[in-house]
Design a protein that fits this description.
67% helix, 4 strands, binds zinc ion, 3 helices, 6% strand
């Protein structure tokens, strides 16, 4: 593939030698695969497809698709986790705010009762 006579590098996937410019492996893609893919995968595939750099590598292609699948799974998992967190926040806040209101009301009534009691006691002391 490389016609230039320069320093060559071994591709760890297909075990062939390439120049610096072509050492990066890229997935072997057909026109069909690129243009029937859904975004954001499509732009990624198209970038590889148009790129002059790197070399098409059948060994890497397998790994590439596994990586893409893994990425998709990760995105899905993150989305679910984000949703879970949102739900937790919603319910968590509701519970804590309502219970704190109850606690605050209790405190206020107790303080008021104590104040009233002190006033009554004071009133009796001074009225005598
Ligand atoms: Zn080359
Ligand atoms: Zn290779």
């Amino acid at each position: 593939m490389c016609k230039k006579e320069t320093k060559v590098f071994l591709c760890k996937y297909c075990k062939r030698y390439f120049c610096k410019e072509h050492i990066d492996p890229k997935p072997v893609l057909t026109f069909q695969q690129v243009f029937t893919a859904k975004e954001p995968l499509r732009s990624k595939l198209e970038e590889f497809w148009r790129s002059e750099k790197g070399h098409p590598d059948y060994v890497y292609t397998q790994i590439f698709w596994e990586k893409m699948e893994e990425e998709e799974r990760t995105i899905m998992r993150k989305m679910w986790e984000a949703l879970d967190r949102l739900n937790e926040q919603k319910y968590g806040k509701k519970e804590s705010s309502s219970s704190s209101i109850i606690v605050r009301i209790d405190l206020v009534t107790i303080i008021l009762l104590i104040l009233i009691f002190i006033l009554i006691v004071l009133f009796f002391i001074f009225s005598h």
